[in-house]
Amino acid sequence: MRKKELQDEGEKIISSIRTIQMQLASVRSAFANATDEALIDSYIYETIALHKKYEYFLKEAKALGLVRKIS
C-alpha cells in the first residue's frame, strides 16, 4: 500500500475504534438502567458483539503499527 492509502486506512480504523468505544459506553448505560429480562439479554449480546469488533479493529491497528503492543 502507498503511504496515503495506509494513512487513510489507519484513520478509518481509529475512527471505528472510537465509535465502538462510544457504543460500548451507551450500551453499558442502557444495561445499567434495564429492568426487562429481554432487554438485559440484548444488551449482553450487543456488548459481546461490540467487544469482538473492538478486538478486530485493535488487531488491525496493531498490524499497521498504530498502537504498540502492551504486555
| Beta-strand content bin | under 5%
- Helix/strand-derived class? mainly alpha
- Number of DSSP helices? 2
The percent range for helix content is over 70%
Tell me the number of strands: 0
How would you describe what is shown here?
The two termini are 29 Å apart. The chain is elongated, with a radius of gyration of 15 Å. With 71 residues, it is mainly α. The longest helix has 31 residues, at 3-33. The protein has helices spanning 3-33, 37-63.
List keywords for this structure.
71 residues; mainly alpha; 2 helices
Short summary:
With 71 residues, the chain is mostly helical. It contains two helices and no strands.
Secondary structure blueprint with pairings:
Blueprint: H1 3-33, H2 37-63
Helix pairs in contact: 1-2
